[in-house]
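Support reply, case 0932

Customer input (verbatim):
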Amino acid sequence: MKKLVEIILLLLVVLNSHSTKAQTIELKIPFIGAEVFVEPGQTPSEIDTWFRTMKEQHFTVCRIRMFESYMLRADGAWDFSLFDNAFRSAEKYGIKVFANPFYYTEKTDIGGFKYPRDEAHLQSIALFLKEMTLHFSQFSSLYGYVLINEPGGGTLPKTDFTRRKFKEWSKTHPRKEFTDKGYPVLVDLYEQSFQKDYGTWFLKWIAGEITKYDNKHEIHVNNHAMFQNCAEYDFPEWRKFLTTLGGSAHASWHFGYFTRQQYALAMSANSEMVRSGAGSIPWWMTELQGGNNTYSGGSPMCPTKEEIVQWLWITTATNATGNIFWCLNPRSSGIEAGEWALLDFQNHPSDRMVAAAKVAETFNNHAALFANAKEVESGISLLYVRQSMWAESKIAGGSTQNYEARDKGGVMKSVLGYFEAFSEMGVNVNLKAFEEFDFSKADYNGQIIILAHQISLPDSYAGLLENFVARGGKLLVDGLTGFFDENLHNTMKTGFAFENLLGGNISEFKLVDNIFTTTIEGNKLPTHLWRGFIVPSNGQTIAAVDGKAIAVRNSIGQGEVLWIPSLLGLGSRIQKDYSALNLLLNKEFQRELSVLPIRFSTTQKNVLMKSMQSGSSLVTVIVNKATTEKSIELIVKNPKLIPTILFADLKGSISGKILQIKPEETMVIEWK
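Our regenerated output:
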């Protein structure tokens, strides 16, 4: 009976989800798929085997890199036959295809170019898109297009075409020689701002070329290396021409800020950033590492079957509509030959693919539950500011002592410190670009913003943050947040726009040590590099050193600000100890945390939990990255909820509110 009800609910979801602009994944349950790497030398029979295997392993979607170089003949004619084989097999086995045009480039270019070279190059791209779209849109297996592989992350090309685009852009973005306050602009973030808009223009142009010939299928793109490249991505603008947003999250390429034990945590943070960027449109992970990277990638590794499971459930718990692995079959030639695959060299499913299939089976067995599941919102938002990352890229050149805040990445690592701290509490938190936060609401009671060492803040942000606090929000600010404006002026000397918000100004910052202690109301917190001394105005001093304030609390309207101008998040991260920071966060946000439907009763190092709501059911995903089995007590706000294990790959258990989870295990529990 329960199964029948789930099927009926699922059909209702399908009927109500029809879109005239673009298709959506039919079942609305999270899909699992893989990149089918198509290249000359493969036979129709071999390609068919791959699609049959996907069908057998419950994979329902694939992505295909559509090589222009394998379609355009020397005489100028187009030959699509190699890829026709793949699309026909996809139709045969009910697999949906996301076509990723891979425009003609050098043979050694494994990622593809990011910008057009000249006008002739742009027109050749347009011709390829026309021919490819008109041909493959006839296949019922086509589901959408991935505009370009992994945009961003490269330097601007020094070409006449780029210079012309820069000149056009400059007409509507005049460069300032002096600020409105009369200070000279000696260093600015002008080129970075142009690169952001230039990348957006190119993606929008590609989308426009595709929709000239096909406006019925999905339009998608996959960002990459989010922790390094996110300042280039203007997701609110991208939403205007995309129907779904994606990402690449390869541990080997993209998780250099983390240890392998932290890769699940990195996947969680990466997913939160893409989820925020997507806003109201769906998102899914376009590329997940499927197999061994032998000589390519930054860190050679082969994911374990347990890691594959962890990543799938973490993205799912972050509202991803699905995941596609890179890749199903190993490519035969080139830099990545023989790498990354879910299949072995005899085309048999690896233990990783079998593990992924078990996750897919769980989705299918509880279709209605996962079709309607949405991440539980905690009201806690960690905001990163693109100008801070740009400023860091301009001025941070490292140090002899290898101080992390002096090197590129210190800004993002400071944010990640707070993300990791909340993860140890079992709490979902948002990780957003400043522009992605909704500052238009009338009431922010229960909402929290944390600005961790965001070194460059435009003056215009002061009013937005003051309104947020005045309307009931809580704000925590640490590190050198606001040290520069958007043109790298020191704000303490040019007029500190945030003095009313923060309750004071800075007298000076002093370098102390790589790790030193900041004591806040008896709590000793590890701190990195600099200590800020405050000259309070309307703020109340809550901590001092040598009679000088180092932390203040300020009230504006219905809300409150806690300002500690020292690097607590990064200090805790470097020390690998969040116990003191968690004490601070639990004390400051006790009321907001107490209303959450579920969390850990005590902090759990190397364990994370993400929570979803589906109708009247609560769904929790718990991942144990510790080296020992854990016994964890949960705080469940509704005492009437009864737990049922939906998935436990290493046979973990739960009794009442106490769960037992083994090292590397992922447990998924429904509470109802």
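We compared this against your earlier run and they match. Two observations from our side: The longest strand covers residues 504-520. Residues 2-372 form a domain with the TIM Barrel fold (CATH 3.20.20.80). Please reopen the case if you see a mismatch on your end.
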